[in-house]
């Protein structure tokens, strides 16, 4: 019999989709695929951008859609960092998603890292360092992720506001909020923020809280100064008509997803309680669907082997200064229990 593999390495979703999504697929009229969307005649991009506009109270013109958050990130970096006679600069957090630097490299952008520092059981943005880097490097773009991957910490409203206030208006600011719905149910701050900071782009996705990474659907809200990006990004002939219908259904099924996010919050606590007491372990506070765990490096091979033997795939980090850590996606409560028990067993047997 083929061994069942549990993937807990890419922050995917082990709980399955909301039942409403199956309904959309069952009832989808394939004739719709024979035509481009007609909402274009109303000057709108998609029934989904229109729906998101209503939901967040933000004009449809300021809603961007993409093939996952990944696509919007890549597009915005390419749009503002490519070309010109002088190499352009992107600031990103030191510990962050490897992809940010890679997309800047694609267009010969210069990436400068600003530090995050460890405080107690969390990482924090170093606001003073960001300010100094902005003043020294004069970047074309500053990127923050909140919550950040892989550290799991997010910026408070006040911290975010402080940072946005000292970044010059000609610099594009991108906030990657792929995991934000786990940290904060309230989204009412987005509208005033993009109004106050017209150089701001806030990117979200259906891949994490809404658990549909395979759908490839991301969305973003942009401030009015970024209309160059709107033109760069908008698809003249519309968007995938199945995807946009699923997208609308997903937002309507928020209760299902909130319930699962609540289970994940319980399991974050469980990880803290169970693993923090093990010698050499430290579980960081996370506001996302994964947790970062520091472990004794001497145990790496044994932990890898034991988890693998149970079919559990987690991410052992290799990046500089964060290479004695593993990032574990929160799975179902049963899967999380198995990960914890497996780790505890390895540590117990090593005594
Ligand atoms: C920090 C961060 N941003 C964005 C994404 C993009 O996800 P997607 O392209 O599936 O929306 C990911 C995926 O892992 C991520 O970790």
Automatic annotation (TrEMBL):
Keywords: Aminotransferase, Pyridoxal phosphate, Transferase
Record-linked InterPro entries: Aminotransferase_I/II_large, PyrdxlP-dep_Trfase, PyrdxlP-dep_Trfase_major, PyrdxlP-dep_Trfase_small
CDD domains: AAT_like (cd00609)
Domain Aminotransferase class I/classII large: 5-343
UniProt cross-references to SUPFAM superfamilies, sorted A to Z: PLP-dependent transferases
Keyword Transferase: yes
Cofactor(s), by name: pyridoxal 5'-phosphate
Origin: domain of life: Bacteria
Transmembrane segments: none
GO MF, any single term: transaminase activity
KW Lipid metabolism (keyword) present: no
Protein name: Histidinol-phosphate aminotransferase family protein
Organism: Butyricimonas hominis
